[in-house]
Amino acid sequence: MNLKKLIALSLFVPTVSFATIVEFQTSHGNFQVNLHDQATPKTVENFLKYVTDDRYDDTFIHRVVTDFVAQGGGHYFDGENIKNIETYASVQNEPVYSNVKGTIAMAKLNNQPNSATSQWYVNLKDNTSLDTSNGGFTVFGEVIGDGMTVLEEIANLSRCGEIPMPNYSSSDCSAGTKPGVENFVNIYDVIIIDDAANTADSLSPVKNTAINAGGGDTPDNSSGGGGGTLWYLLGLTALSLPLRMKKLVGKRV
Predict the structure, then answer these.
(1) What is the residue range of 12's domain?
(2) What is the dihedral of CA 243, 246, 248, 250, to 10 degrees?
(3) Which pLDDT score, from 0 to 100, does residue 191 have?
């Protein structure tokens, strides 16, 4: 655990769900997220367990789809292979807020509303079709400050399939050339920078009015504007790599 995380945790109160602002420290800039700890407490507590247990350290953003999402929290690169991070039990769905631009939400498995574990995504535009897909995807925070500028710059990087891969050419991708750590958008650390219980009071989240927030157990398989495979792609990562590169990628459990 690095010094910054030790300092953050030294200020951290025992009730983990009260830590409401975190910072993602990446190879391509840092961005902060203000968490809805009171409106989506189970999801925030689940997310923060991965943070405080260092499960997100040295992972990478494994999926970007233009004008859709940037997704991470599922994989790390050990210098030789892409591997899945160790996950905890899945968390209960809490579809309270809408998947509008700048929100962070949890990815899930196909037709399993309560299957979110570690993978998160940031909405790069308003994706309100996700509010009802698969029981509704749980929005649990908002990117604040200039964070979306950082994420949009990441979204504009060259990609191999859907993986943003800087300094990795299209010919490298098509040939299945083995990448190095420098060819990924690495998340070095996620740290708690404010443990106050009321930081979300400054936000004006958009309510998910398309679904009963307490009824997320019944999936709505509507294709709603984005195609019937939206939740499938989010949950299983859909890493579109050349055949030789596919050997490096593991699916989320």
Answers:
(1) 3-246
(2) -160
(3) 96
pLDDT computed for residue 40 by the predictor:
95
**3-class secondary structure for 90-101?**
CECCCCCECCCC
Pairwise CA distance, residues 146 & 153, whole Å: 11
**Residue range 2-14: mean pLDDT, rounded:** 46
Residue 124, domain CATH: 2.40.100.10
253 assigned to some structural domain? no
Residue 97 is assigned to a structural domain of this protein? yes
Tens of pLDDT, residue by residue over 75-86, are 999 999 999 999
Alpha carbon 112 to its chain's center = 17
Residue 194 burial (10 A CB sphere; 0-12, 13-18, 19+): middle
Contact 34/203 with Cβ under 8 angstroms? yes
Percent of the chain clearing pLDDT 70 (strictly above): 75
- pTM attached to this predicted model: 0.80
* Cβ proximity of 134 and 231 under 8 Å: yes
Length of the chain: 253
Count of structural domains, the chain: 1
- Residue 144 resides in a domain: yes
Structural tokens at position 135: 């029981």
Query: Whole-angstrom Cα distance, residue 196 to residue 168?
Result: 41
Contact assessment for residue 190 and residue 118, using Cβ atoms and an 8 Å cutoff: no
Give pLDDT tens digits for 27-72: 999 999 999 999 999 999 999 999 999 999 999 999 999 999 999 9
Continuous H helices in 112-248: 147-155, 170-175, 230-236, 243-246
Within-domain flag for 181? yes
Average pLDDT over residues 141-147: 97
Q: Helix, strand or coil for residue 1?
A: coil
